[in-house]
Amino acid sequence: MDDEDRSLPEPFEVAEALWLHAYQTLAARLPPATDPPRPRPAAWPDLPGAPADPDAPDGGLPDGGPPSGRSAVPGADGPPPPWTAGPPGPTPPEDGPEPDHDTAPAVAPRPGPGADTLPAPPPGSPADAPTARRVTGRLALLREFPDDRPGAEALPDLPDAPAIARALRPLRRRVPSATAYELDEETTAERAVEDGFWLPYTRPATERRFTLTLVVDDHATMAVWEQTVAEFTAAAEQSGAFRDVRVRRMGPHTPPGGEPAAAVLRGPAGSPAELVDRTGRHLVLVLTDALGPLWRTGAGTRALETWAGAGPTAVIHLLGQRDWHRTALVPRRVRLHCPRPGAALAVAFPPEEYDPFDPPPADWTAAVPVLELDADWIGRWASLVAGEAPDGTDAPVLLLGVPAPEEEGEAESGPPDGPPPPTVQERIRRFRSHATPTAFRLATHLAAAVLDPRLVRTVRHRFVPEAQPVHVAELFLSGLVEEPARGTAARPPLDFVDGAREALLAGAMRADTARVARSVSDFFGARSPAARSLHGALLAPEEAPVPRPSDEELPFIRVELAILRALSGPYLTRAHRISSALESTTAGASFTPTNDSLVHDIRDTHVHSDTGGPSMTDTTASQHQREEGGAVNGTPAHPTSGTPTPASGTPIPAGTPIPGQHAPGVHPSRPPHSAVPAVWGSVPPNNPNFVGREDLLAQIREQLLTGDTSAVLPHTLHGMGGVGKSQIAIEYVYRYASDYDVVWWIPSEQPAMILTALTELAQRMGLNVGSEANRAVPAVREALRRGEPYDRWLLVFDNAENVEAVRPYFPTGGTGKILITSRNQEWDRVARTLSVDVFTREESKALLRRRARDLTDEDADRLAEALGDLPLAIEQAAAWQAVTGMTVPDYLRLINEKIAELMLELVPSPDYPMSVAAAWDVSLRQLEQRNPAALQLLQVCSFFAPEPISRSLFNNSRTTTIAPELDEVLRHPIKLGRAIREINIYALARIEHRHDTIQLHRLVQAVLVNRMSPQQQADMRHGAHLLLADANPNSPGSRELWPRYQALLPHVVVSRAVECDSPWVRGLIRGMVEFLHMWGDHAGSAAMAREALEIWTGKFGAEDQQTLEMAKWLAFTLRTLGEYQEAAAMMERTADTYLRTAGEDDEGTLDALIQLCSGLRLRAEMARGLEINRSVYERSLRSFGEDDPASLRAAHSLGVGLRLMGLYREARAYDTETARLRSLTLGEQHFDTLNTLSGLSIDIRETGDYLEAVAHQEDVYARYVTHFGEDTPASLGCARVLAVCRRRAGDHAGALALSEAAWTKFANRYGHDHPDAVACAANLVVDLRQDGQLRRSRELGEATVGRYAAKLGEAHPYTLSARVNLAITLRHLDEPAGAGEHLAAALPGLRENLGEDHVLALTAAIGAASQYAAEGRHEEALELDRATLEVLRRDHGEDHPTALACATNLVLDLRALGRDDEATALHTETLAGFRRRLGEDHPATVASASGKRADVDIAPVPF
Q1: Phi, psi of 242 (to 5 degrees)
Q2: Would you put residue 1246 in left (φ > 0), alpha (ψ -120 to 50) or beta?
Q3: Is the pLDDT of residue 978 over 50?
Q4: Which long-range contacts does 633-638 make (Cβ < 8 Å, 24+ apart)?
Q5: How far is CA 796 from CA 732, 733, 746, 747, 877, in A?
Q6: Neighbours of 1500 (CB within 10 A)
Q7: Phi, psi of 168 (to 5 degrees)
Q8: Rg of the chain over CA atoms, in angstroms?
Q9: Per the confidence metrics, is the pTM higher than 0.85?
Q10: What's the rounded Cα separation, in Å, for the pair 936 and 938?
Q11: Residue 317: beta bridge partners?
Q12: Where is the stretch described as Disordered (predicted)?
């Protein structure tokens, strides 16, 4: 080329220049960024009535960028540039998966249909500009909903958002754009060379195939899901799967003229038809909770029908599948196919899903899948729509356009009368029984608030941070919330039905109620005078002015009234003032005051109290319900007449139930089931070499399908070891997994293994229980029995050899199935049994030839005959053949030679034929030659349980000495891996790489043990013990380490580690005993401790240090189990041994003496126990100092002893100092610190400061719940103390709710005879009497007396105290003879045990005097009351409430004898004392003023 030619540019240079020009031109059009990038908001702003954000920039965008789906380039929405010439270049493929890199189009695509916009701002506002009107609604997320906590960051409501974004990736397909073009550089350059003209050539740019419109239901209940919807929107955008993501809101609209309700899209384009796109490139996802009128009227389903006929449409149901049947959308299960990407879905009805009572419709127009908001559900739908599921998928769908059934005579006959609506009390009870604890706790908080969506979110995040929107939805489904009539815009969108708010507050902690009330005041104080005054009303109820009633203030006034009545005490006066103001104003005329008896109004009521109080009675909800109101769950709060049905097309008035009838075309049916189990766990991997057994599998399936549905009848696979029972069960589970919602594998050789499996199942089922077995196991059995949340379940109890030990863990009912594998024939008595025999010959040959393909049929037949067709032996022999290639005659010769040797060395085993032992021995000898350490590893493992052994067990043994070859392998991970690989080659163990475990079959273990000499057995067993000791987690109280203890436990038991002499192994046993107790397996802990104590005492003597430690643990566990006499005797023996061997000042001795004090209390030797407490405390101070944990433990025990002897003032002084030192030494939230603080609450209460005690204990209880959980035994024990404090402070309803909850949980978890359950029952007897439930109080009181007598004896103070409480109930039941009998035994008994001046004896004396008065023996009553009052005033003070109660009774004695002047003077003095101590409105003060005789109960002080 000459110089002139070289002056021209090369083609690639021209292409680069054109590309650079296009890039710079586009970049110049982009507006410069002036603000730093902002994070994406997390919630939706456009809720009804939400205020505008005053800080938003005028006409600007929240994130400083253009709205999604709009181009930032002027003219980008126009046609291709006019300078484009020539034919287009090569066209991209029509459709296909996304390439590895993204190519940005040169021109942005044109907006699709239905672009979302914000409503126009008011005229004259700064935002009234064209640019502001173009801003899409989803770019203003949560600007109007700031979190009122400074610096607080809301937890995500959609924690699996990244997984959902990944699940949408199948939709990331690219197609040629119809509107955007890009420069075809290659074609431009080629044509320039060919034609000599530099004209640019273009081609269609590629773009995402799909756009997505999210249609959000705008019903009031959807407000709680705004953050969830926002996070889902962000996940959809970040997935990169869509060309555009738009958000629209949809609600119902009832046109005039009686036409049917229709769905409308909020915004300028109101018709759902605006979203119709028949190109197959537009997806519609509807997000809803299906509770609103949009679905009850059928308007929503008609919109779905419109969209589904044009393109892929689905509903994301925000509630869990278990609750779908309670909403207006209940789909049916079908199989869906998508013929091509973006096409309409084809429907098929699987035969197994056919329901003769609800057959599929014959005709429909569209099928819309219903999805959970879950990555798995959304991923399967995305794969289906993208055409990546050629076999289709099972899914629940709504079949739309189904003709409505014709009903004759419908016009003539009105709707049948339904059952009467449930009362509020019934709804509360139902809600408490069905709701999760978190949902109920959240409901008690929200009852103190206006149900404004923003405030609901604030309360949830601040006070119940673990709550999610689904917990709010549980409240909406409870029937306790309604959508009230919209009189003014000031009304909240939702409100509680009448009586519900008060009933929920009765079960709330008063401190929580006050905290929420302060939040309400802070949240709305700037806008509402009534809300602003609420804060002052809490601080000074008498001084704060009463808010002026008006329509705008009425919601806040009603909330304040309910809060004041719930807080009771000094707040009741203000409550009466507010109630009077409401009744006397016009604005309050529409307000229906709540029935007094439901909200703790104690005036003019019959009094039964420990020191006087109201008798509570149930009040039906119909007394409190508004006629136009309705409940969110679809049951009207009050029956109405003449209400038009949705099908009639008549407008539905506000205040009607939220989810009423099912929408037209949506027929209710059973909840749909998943194609794969929702809960799947612990199932071993399926065997890839499984052969045969088809007849057995068919029989199992037939039995499980045709079993009795009225009870759970177990089905058992029975056979000798090695025949493949477990393998058959595994194969069945994998084949028919889709039949079940829950499939759970339960190793059952030991009870602890069953507990472990069921505890994990409870967690996986989301039962909201802790990790303690005694909490989780009863909960999971009950959930399976009820079929909630899953009714199709299969439990496999593997290796269940002990019938009586396994049966208690079966669910007692339900629609699930139980499959058992066992060698025990006794299962024939209680189960349907299938016998499992060895392989058929053809099955044996099939397995042999699958593993060793060169075997001839004849050789396989000979080998199977020699091994007796035992599946386990066949598997091992097949592995031998595959590895060695030895001919079958040579192998059989080796087996025969080995049989001859083994006959001389071993006793034949009944578990397997000698030929099997010989075949295994051949493999073991070969393994020994190749890798001696591998054989030794097997020998050690033969003493473990035939359960998976974690490989980590061998990684902690670097200093353990077992055998030279094995020791070296254990110190080198590579050599250990090689040894395990050698074992796997010969099929001598099952290696599971997924969990990194090794497992030996019990028959292989038996062969290994039998071929070892006694000395080898002892050495290898000891080696197993040392490996277990090296793996000791050494922290039984740490919940995060409990799985490690659970994994070790079966091997500790089977290896007989309890017999090992090593102190390290004995330390492991001690840790296991402690772990079992902490975990909740108290019986298992006691059994292991008892066995260890017996063995160790025989081996090492009773004075051995570790033996003594085990004795203390056994005594402690026995006391927990209620075995009081044995526990007390063991405590005394242990203390005597310590004193004899270690001396008085030894730390172990002092600890044993503290435990002895507990034993003496069990024997009613309170005085002797207190004497020892004082001595131990003094010696601990001398030896360790006041702030040492040992001294603090002694101080705490001293406080308990002082309380039990009635020395509350001294106990209060000690406990105050102990709590202070424990807070400094251990921390304010430490368990021991909180334990002492709970005891201090009792001291404060029993010294007469009732109001201070309840405030103190409310705080302690809140800290227990926060740090240990609501349902732990420690928190329940704290709740028991708090219930008594509430009762003494006058909060009888709160006391009853808490007391009954604690008793129910203890009884359900441990049984009614458990000590904690009995103690709770003793308190509940009093609370039931206060509530007027006298007969139930008597029944529970009699049972409590019987249980105390059986465990502690007739003369124990606890038994006698229970008799005093029961006598009060009997006296109110007009059964004086029974009451007198109990008091005749209790009073002298308490005086003899505790002394005449003990407060319990004085309390019994008050009861006896009341009994005398009831019998007309007024002189005796006067004498006894006068003597009792003298001692009470002397020892406890004149203003002590118990002394004042006794004085009240003395006044009545004097009046009965006609001594009115003395009575009046004493009454005046007593009333003044009550008012000073408890306040004017305390139930005891009111009772005394009204001349009611006081009943003083006894609350047992915890040991």
Answers
A1: -125, 145
A2: alpha
A3: yes
A4: 633/326, 633/476, 633/477, 633/478, 633/479, 633/657, 633/658, 633/659, 634/326, 634/479, 634/658, 634/659, 634/660, 635/421, 635/422, 635/479, 636/421, 637/421, 637/479, 637/482, 637/497, 637/498, 638/421
A5: 11, 9, 6, 8, 29
A6: 21
A7: -85, -5
A8: 39
A9: no
A10: 5
A11: 288, 372
A12: 30-131, 405-425, 605-681
Which amino acid belongs to residue 1110? M
- Res. 1181: pLDDT tops 80: yes
Strand (E) or helix (H) holding 336:
strand 332-337
Kindly provide the b/e burial profile for residues 1248-1281, where b requires at least 16 CB atoms within 10 angstroms of the residue's own CB: bbbbebbbbbbebbbbbbeebbbbbbebbbbbbb
> For residues 354 and 484, what is the distance between their CA atoms, to the nearest angstrom?
41
Taking the C-alpha atoms of residue 863 and residue 888, their distance in angstroms, rounded to an integer, is: 7
C-alpha 1363/C-alpha 1359 separation (Å) is: 6
Q: 41, 258, 267: which is closest to 139 by C-alpha?
A: 41
Residue 267: per-residue pLDDT: 66
Q: Where are the beta strands (DSSP E) in 662-730?
A: 679-681, 715-718
SS3 365: coil
Nearest to 1489 by CA among 571, 612, 615, 616: 612
Phi and psi of 988, rounded to 5°? -90, -10
Q: How many CB atoms are closer than 10 A to CB 259?
A: 9
End-to-end CA distance of the chain: give it in Å, rounded. 108
Identify whether the C-beta of residue 940 lies closer than 8 Å to the C-beta of residue 949.
no
Residue appearing with tokens 């005490």: 569
Residue 1244 to residues 932, 1288, 1403, Cα–Cα distance (Å):
71, 12, 18
Question: For 647-677, what is each residue's pLDDT tens digit?
Answer: 333 333 333 333 333 333 333 333 344 446 8
What residue type is assigned to position 416 of the chain? P
Number of helices followed by number of strands (H, E) in the chain: 55, 23
Q: Which of 415, 412, 471 is nearest to 443 (CA)?
A: 471
CB 833 within 8 A of CB 820: no
Cα distances (Å, whole numbers) of residue 801 to 700, 749, 751: 20, 6, 11
For residue 714, give the nearest of 777, 806, 786, 645 by alpha carbon.
Answer: 806
Q: What is the pLDDT of residues 210-233, one digit of tens each?
A: 899 999 998 888 888 888 999 999
Q: Which two tokens stand for residue 1218?
A: 């102990």
CA nearest neighbour of 139 among 85, 68, 51, 202: 68
pLDDT tens digits, one per residue of 829-872: 778 888 888 888 888 888 887 777 778 888 888 888 877 777 87
Task: For residue 808, give Cα distances in angstroms to 192, 742, 814.
Answer: 88, 20, 15
Closest among 536, 527, 525, 603 to 564, alpha carbons compared: 536
State how far the Cα of 351 lies from the Cα of 334, in Å rounded to an integer: 10
- Under DSSP, is residue 1080 helix (H, G, I), strand (E, B) or coil? coil
- Cα–Cα distance for residue pair 674/1005, rounded to 1 Å: 40
Q: Which residue has the tokens 């008609």?
A: 302
Least confident of 417-421, 955-959, 1284-1288: 417-421
pLDDT at 1350 over 50: yes
CB count within 10 Å of CB 363 equals: 8
Phi-psi sector, 1232: left (phi>0), alpha (psi -120 to 50), beta: alpha
Q: Where are the alpha helices (DSSP H) in 654-724?
A: 694-706
* Residue partners of 1033: CB distance under 8 A and separation at least 6: 1041, 1044, 1045, 1071
| Token duo for residue 1103 | 């004075």
Quote the crossing angle between the two packed helices 871-884 and 857-866, to the nearest 10°: 130
Three-class secondary structure of residue 896 per DSSP: helix
Nearest to 712 by CA among 574, 815, 598, 863: 815
Q: Please state, in angstroms and rounded to a whole number, the distance separating the CA atoms of residues 471 and 462.
A: 15
- Other Cβ atoms less than 10 A from the Cβ of 853: the count is 9
